[in-house]
Amino acid sequence: MRFLLVEDNADLAASVAARLSMDGHAVDQAASLAEAEDCLGAASYDLILLDIMLPDGDGRDFLSRHRAAERETPVIVMTARSAITDRVDALDTGADDYITKPFDFAELEARCRAVLRRRGGAAQTRRSFADLTFDPLAATLVVAGDSRDLRSREVRLLEVFLNAPGRILAKEHLIDRLFSFSEPVSDNAVEVYVARLRKKMTGSRARIETVRGLGYRLTAD
């Protein structure tokens, strides 16, 4: 998944980005509303983590514009304001969730997962396709009763494919989902991770097809 983190506290932003990156997420950082708008103009995101008090304005104004433009990207507001009225105001403005600083990283991660599940219409964490059973929290893939461990980037790549089974996904789309602007990406990065995931899927009826000149597609026999 690709996240946009809008936070002007450099230390907190670096810590949050590092923690989410450990889970395999690509995280772009913006220290102001202007930088956040630039990021939104250059990439699409699965989730936005939004501070309220920013150098060039109020995050709630950004949130209002975000919803007025009919952008559906879920938003979790992060702020030191803990009053009930502040929470209600953020949620009424269009936030999908709210977390008060200081927060535990485990809680933030859980809230991110919950918001993404709700947006995806999935009440359960585990996903199934053909004879595959995928558990992103445990980072495991079960093929015909055989459990296989996945690395963080493999988890995120499989999530991308499972969100669009049968669709051809271009290499550029996969790069956008897996890597942030700040991460160096080699020419064969996608091929490497697809090859690793294919190896973990050995023995399954499901497979990742290469569609020459177009990209990749998750399908099943």
Please give a structural write-up.
The protein has 221 residues and is an alpha/beta fold. It folds into 2 domains: 119 residues, Response regulator (Rossmann fold); 94 residues, Winged helix-like DNA-binding domain superfamily/Winged helix DNA-binding domain (Arc Repressor Mutant, subunit A, Orthogonal Bundle), CATH 1.10.10.10. Helix content is 41%, strand content 25%. The strands form 4 sheets. A 5-stranded parallel β-sheet has the order 2-1-3-6-7, sandwiched between helices. Strand 10 and strand 11 form a beta hairpin. The radius of gyration is 18 Å and the shape is elongated. The two termini are 27 Å apart.
Going by CATH, the architecture of the largest domain would be 3-Layer(aba) Sandwich
Q: Which parts are unreliable, with pLDDT below 50 for 5 consecutive residues or more?
A: none
Rg, rounded, reads 18 Å
- Euclidean distance between termini CA atoms: 27 Å
Q: How many separate domains?
A: 2
Q: What is the structural class?
A: alpha/beta
What oligomeric state do these chains adopt?
single chain
What kind of sheet is the major sheet?
5 strands, parallel
For CATH, the homologous superfamily of the largest domain is named as Response regulator
The count of helical stretches stands at 8
Report the helical percentage: 40-55%
Overall strand count: 13
In which order are the strands of the major sheet placed?
2-1-3-6-7
Shape: elongated
Strand and helix order: EHEHEEEHEHEHEEEEHHHEE
CATH topology group of the largest domain: Rossmann fold
